[in-house]
Design a protein that fits this description.
Length: about 300
Amino acid sequence: MGWIVGSIIAVGAVGVTLVYGILGVGDFSFGDTMTVGMFVVLFVVSAEGANLGFAGGDFGPLSFGWGLVVGALLAITLVVGLVLLLEVLVYRRLRRRGGGFFVFAIASLGIGIMLRALIQLIWGPGNFRFAPGIHKAIEITEGVRIKPDQIFLIGLTLLIGLGVYLLLYRTRFGKAMRATADNPDLAEASGIHTDRVRLGTWALGGLMAALAGVMLGIQTEVRFDSGFVLLLPLFAAAILGGIGSPGGAILGGLVVGIGQEVSTRWIDTGFKPAIPFIIVTAVLLLRPRGLFGRDT
């Protein structure tokens, strides 16, 4: 289970670390943005979506079919559009007025509260699932069982990590993103359109939020606060891996996810959310740069 939870945290942490590392914004609405993506998919795969003709058959042993694929594409489109709209209407204006880190943090926190309240207003506080019912697990070895959906989530995390690496280190836009992260003024003086880089970074962060939300919905129940509950582990993973390091964020996500699940062997499950606090505190005290990043 730790690998599965860690994979979901890893994908979200990549979005968090890119937005913070390149734009200098601690996006505390990220978890609620994930939830928006979850509920878009829920709409498509629910009865309402079925009436629109989006329901599809299962993909072999997986619990989902074409309905979830359509829902995921729609979620990506809407979430990316949402974060770009917020950049234009909110964050860009704050930046031009000289807003610092805490101004952006408070603004993003308020946006997250607004999104969470809106979702609760529409869908209520209940629990939902993309695919109700019991889905059988495959026995890997004696005493070790895993569901096909979980294998899919781990594989998807690896593909996302590879895709982000290729984008950052094998494309011109990736080089522009890294240059903007190092020195925005010098990057702009060198001919890089930093506003476009910022929009692209927000779009990439929105993509990661939507994908992480879909993955979380496949693994667990869908609630109005599902993404918010995962917010601290996301930042813990980003800090552990090193701010601005996508590869470190993936490793950090796996460490946080596995650490949370393994800890239940010695502590009550109710104390499991405290593990990210411990990890963040230890990292900041022992290695402020994280595993692969610069000073946090």
